[in-house]
Structures are given as C-alpha cells and as structure tokens.
Design goal:
Structural class: alpha+beta
Helix content: 25-40%
Radius of gyration: 17 Å
Shape: globular
CATH architecture: 3-Layer(aba) Sandwich
Distance between the termini: 37 Å
Order of helices and strands: EEHEHEEEHEHHEHEH
Low-confidence stretches: none
Length: 210
C-alpha cells in the first residue's frame, strides 16, 4: 500500500500568540523545532521529541504538530500498531493507530487538541485507512486537569469527535479492565466491507471462547 502524505496547515489566533497546526512533517522538519518541556505524558520531553522524529521516518508514520513560533506545544502521531498488540494480528496495511495525542499542560484550553485532529483528517489519504486509538484512564492527566475519569473521558470524546472518531465496543482485556477505557475508530470513506469485517474480528477475538 502506498502511503501518500499531503502537507496541510492552519493558523489559529490565541491569547498566547498564533498557533500553527501543520503536517505531516518529515523527520528533518521536526528536528529543527524545539520541543516544549511540558510534553512529558509518555516519556521525558527530549526522548519523546526523538520518538516523534523516528515515527515521521516510517513509511506510514504521520506527525501533525501544534507550534508557537519555533516551539512544538502539541502533537499527534499515526503509525502501524505495535506488533505485540492484537490490532497488528490481522496484518492490515490500511489499519493505523492514533498512537498519541498530547498538548503541553500550560497550553491547554487553546483548542490545540481539536485542531490537531481536524488538520490530520484534511488529507484525503486518510480516507484509505481505518484509524483507531485505545484510551486507558491510567494514562490520563487527571491530576493536572483536576477531572475525574468520567469528566476526562467526556472531554476526550468531544476532542476525538473533531477527527470523526467514534466509540466502538471490543473484548480487548485491557480496555475491558475499566469502564472508562475505550476504543475509538474512524472508518475512511474508501474502506470496503472486507476490511471492516477483518477489523471486527480484531475487535472481538474472544467471542468463541468459553
């Protein structure tokens, strides 16, 4: 499968300056920008900067960023699912994971999360993919936001809807481990019924187990 990547950008006026949301960016472009110190949800900021640079170099890898001048204050990643996860077992070339979306704590409330997803879906190539993300409450910044799991989940759902991702059921044990955990999915317009069925089989791998 050919992975086409068409660059898009949008500018947003915010109280702290002009927020530029753009991508997909190349590894070389990402390396030229600063990475905000507050982007630490998954690993220390410097290591996460290196991780997104590496993802951008993958054939299917897509990185969309939100930046203020030369500083990246938010990003979203798209790539093939981890080979050790159930979602890779179907070996589907048209299934990609929204692996991470993060906005630095001091720049939240500017609409950056929604903007990242909106710009991500502007590329027509996204209509060739089933896009999914798995959300686990133990990764959420409940302390920083002051929200409980249900309040956070509600805000998360609204943000993801800007990229047309919707809730889908699954028997994945980690998602089933807590009622706030969830699977969100977007089916591209050019996804056929065969691919949908294959993805359904990944969603429900335990239906015939007793």
């Amino acid at each position: 499968m050919e992975h086409k990547k068409t660059y898009y950008s949008k500018e947003f006026t915010t109280p702290v300056g002009t927020l530029v949301v753009e991508g997909p960016l190349s590894s070389e472009q990402l390396a030229q920008y600063e990475f905000d110190d507050g982007l630490i949800a998954f690993r220390p900021a410097k290591k996460q900067h290196q991780a997104v640079i590496e993802i951008a170099g993958l054939p299917e890898g897509r990185i969309i960023i939100a930046r203020l001048e030369n500083k990246i204050v938010g990003y979203v990643t798209f790539l093939y699912p981890d080979p050790l996860e159930r979602w890779s077992q179907g070996k589907m070339e048209n299934l990609i994971e929204l692996g991470a979306i993060e906005v630095s704590s001091q720049y939240r409330g500017l609409g950056a999360g929604k903007a990242l997803l909106t710009v991500s879906m502007m590329d027509d190539a996204m209509e060739d993919y089933i896009i999914f993300t798995t959300e686990y409450y133990w990764h959420w910044d409940l302390k920083g936001t002051g929200l409980d799991v249900w309040g956070y989940r509600n805000i998360l759902g609204k943000m993801m809807s800007s990229g047309n991702l919707e809730w889908y059921a699954t028997d994945d044990p980690e998602i089933c481990a807590h009622p706030a955990n969830c699977l969100l999915v977007r089916f591209g317009k050019r996804i056929n019924s065969e691919s949908m069925q294959k993805f359904d089989e990944l969603r429900f791998m335990n239906r015939f187990m007793y």
